[in-house]
Amino acid sequence: MDDLVDRARRLRSLEPSCGPVRLIAVDGHAGSGKSTFTRRLAAALGGAPLLALDDLATHEELFAWTGRLREQVLEPLSRGEPARYAPYDWTARVFGPPRTVPPAPVTLIEGVGAGRAAVRPFLAALLWIEGDSEASWARGRRRDGPELSDFWDGWTVAERRHFAEDPSRPFADAVIRLVPTGYEWLEGPRSTAGTGRFITERET
Q: Please, is 46 exposed, middle or buried when counting C-beta atoms within 10 Å of its C-beta (0-12, 13-18, 19+)?
């Protein structure tokens, strides 16, 4: 976590973007390591709230969760109010008991599509986890096992379509790569275009 302490400080110094909240999105291909990275970043931020978009998606709506995110999370936080959302149970295929996300100074959302166009106006920074799509998907398949092979077949088609229609990486403030010593933070396409709000330096 030591390699993330300075990055956490920089994130805390950003201007609020969603009411009083600095909302940080972590996007990338499924299986690229977003969840592990975001949990570590949340810890470096002193236990920042973390919302996984897997909790808002469903089997029938892999990417059609924007309305739920806006109504249950973004709009309440923008008013300085706690967000309440019902996480989806991927085994029972129903929404479970509601969870609360406080309007903390820094809040993280992670998942494929976290940096989509409908969400970007609410973000203080968009972080993209670098990784080849095919390699990331293969890692996800190994993690989930053969019993979810059919799900992954459908997922890869849906993810390709989503990023073709609504890409996130071109708008990333930072691109993050996993290296043996931790994480390497590089300036994202948005920053190199001169419009970024979160400028990084090449570090490991």
A: exposed
How many Å apart are CA 127 and CA 136, to the nearest integer? Answer: 17
pTM: 0.91
Domain boundaries, the chain: 2-192
Please check whether residue 26 is in contact with residue 114, taking contact to mean a CB–CB distance below 8 angstroms.
yes
Tokens of 187: 């300036």
DSSP state of 10: H
Question: Biggest alpha carbon distance in the chain?
Answer: 46
Q: Which CATH superfamily is domain 2-192 in?
A: P-loop containing nucleotide triphosphate hydrolases (3.40.50.300)
Query: DSSP per residue over 100-160, as a string?
Result: EE---SEEEEESTTTT-TTTGGG-SEEEEE---HHHHHHHHHHHH-GGGHHHHHHHHHHHH
Q: How far apart are CA 29 and CA 77, in angstroms?
A: 26
Over residues 59-105, the pLDDT tens digits come to 999 999 999 999 999 999 999 999 999 999 999 999 999 999 999 99
Q: Whole-angstrom Cα distance, residue 142 to residue 148? A: 10
**Half-sphere exposure of residue 147, counting CA atoms within 13 Å on the CB side?**
2
- Reading the block at residue 124, the tokens are 């203080």
User: Can you tell me the distance from the alpha carbon of 23 to that of 125, in angstroms, rounded to the nearest whole number?
Assistant: 7
